[in-house]
Write the structure tokens for this entry.
Amino acid sequence: MRDRQKELLELLDKSGANLYALLTRLTLREDIAEELMQELFIKLINSRSFDKAGNRQAYTRRAAINLAFDWRRRQKRNPLRLDQVREPASNDSSPLGKLVQAEELDEILNAIGQLNKVPREAFVMRYIQEEPYDYIAKQLDKTSHHVRALCSRALNHLRDVLGSNRHKSFEKETHNVKNRRKPNPPSVESPLTD
Amino acid sequence: MSKIDENQIHRQLKALSQIKPGSEATSRAIQRVRETLINKEKTRQCTGTRIRRKIFKSPITKFAAAAVLLIGLGYATGRLSAPTVDTEELRAALRQDLLEEMNERWQSAFAAGCAQIKEELQRQIRRDLTEFAVQTLAASGSLTNQRLMELIQLIEATRWRERQQIAAALEQIEQEKILLRNGLLAVAARTNELLSTKQ
């Protein structure tokens, strides 16, 4: 157990910052990323499969990705209360820009969360961590071509999901606007927004 | 299904990849995990010590530990204070013991074998005697039969001879009867003649 602790401390020194950045990108919240980082290492210290894992770093990253997307799934089921809402992590300084961007990023992350585990990991490593294909292939124990194919398929899937979401939200907005116009007398031409 | 522009997705992904947590937040998170890992190990060690202390707090455990220690001490003392053994003497004693045991085994095996042989012999003699008696009886029976047959033949021969003698006697009697009749007839005729003559 002492060896495991030593190994985990070394892993924390080596890739702690990267893991924290990854968790922050996937949750868009620094406080949640900190909690998940804590949870990740507690899981690792008690995990038996961590000893059996050939590539400990890859195992840890996979566990972190899974934890982050599990958290996102839980969040979708349990919407946040107002007192739990914190300022999202973003590089844009304007409040409106932050809000819009956070919403878009949330949407794309939720779409990534719908992918299967292996394509999701490959996609996250490629497009969110910006790792080269060869490195991803080595980490996932696959060929570079296979990783490219996985990422391409994942991107197509994202396009479908996001396109469908936008279409639905557009239809919903149109429906709302039409419903809002109904009570007004037909003779008076009122603007779409009051 | 409508598809979204790929550039837009790439732009959003790029924005995601550009998110970097503050260095202060990063070091705080790492420090927190480090403290957790170290505390967890300490807690585990403390738990171990606490369990050990709890175990040794019980008087039964203390008594058991003391008993184990005493037994161990006694065993070690016994081992150390044991006299040295002369191997030659030990070998001779072992040899003697082995020989005695072998003799005993031989004797018991022989006695058992003897009894078995005696019993087998008795059984054989009884079987032979029975066979002899049967053969003797059969032989005597056939001899008696032969003697009886000879006796019967002898009686038959004697009876046949007697019957022949009786037949010969009867024939002689018949001839003598005929002679007597003829003589009587001759006497009668002579008498008749005599009577006629006298008259």
User: Anything to note?
Assistant: The radius of gyration of chain A is 21 Å. The mean pLDDT of chain A is 79.
